[in-house]
Amino acid sequence: MDQLILGCRTFVTTAVEQKNKRIMLIDGPAVLGWETWRSMDEQGSMRLLHEQLQLMQQQGYFESISIDALTHILSGVLNESTLWIAQMPNVMESVEETMKIISQLLERFRT
Question: What predicted TM-score, i.e. pTM, was given to this entire model?
Answer without folding.
Answer: 0.87
